[in-house]
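PROTOCOL LOG
Step 1. Enter all chains and additional molecules of the complex.
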Amino acid sequence: MSRICVVLVLFIVCTQALSLAESRHKRQVTNQFRNKNYYVESLIKANFYNAFLFCQRLGMRLLTIDNNEEYDYILNILRTQIQFKPGSKLWTSGTDLAQEGTFHWMSTGFPVLINKWLPKQPDNGSGNENCICFWNNRGTIGFNDEQCTDVANFICESPKL
Ligand SMILES: *[C@@H]1O[C@H](CO)[C@@H](O)[C@H](O)[C@H]1NC(C)=O
Ligand SMILES: [Ca+2]
Ligand SMILES: [Ca+2]
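Step 2. Run joint prediction.
Step 3. Record the structure below.
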């Protein structure tokens, strides 16, 4: 077989493997609340930026939380579907990277309106905490500002079709 054929066959095999992986991701989107679907990534850990990119690649976006009801829905996923043990973290798209001290959802551009901070958070720890994650702080779950380069699980969302 000529070299070009080998390359072609490899290309076809690879693209098929990729689309298989993608359809597997799509099938894992089983959580729905109001007008959104959610993909819960509880195996892969990534920093804030890579979590953001990962969701975009799925045609989705990193989690935003519009109101207390949606917060409770996500909290229930953490409590019942994944092992969100003490110390666990999970990224949302909330960040004050654009303006220190003012948090917005990076995925939608809107301000973070709900107040779900854990006690003493956000504390801008080490002067370098700019991304919002869910954090299980010894049994209490809530928001924490965390270093964006930390790795954590994450949830992608998309408007329901
Ligand atoms: C966070 O820390 C940085 C670096 O020390 C500082 O410039 C910034 O003002 C702090 N943010 C807040 C809200 O205090
Ligand atoms: Ca900050
Ligand atoms: Ca913090």
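Step 4. Note key features.
Residues 96, 100, 124, 129-130, 145 surround calcium ion (ligand 2) (CB under 6 Å).
Strands lie at 31-33, 36-46, 61-62, 89-99, 102-105, 131-137, 140-146, 152-159.
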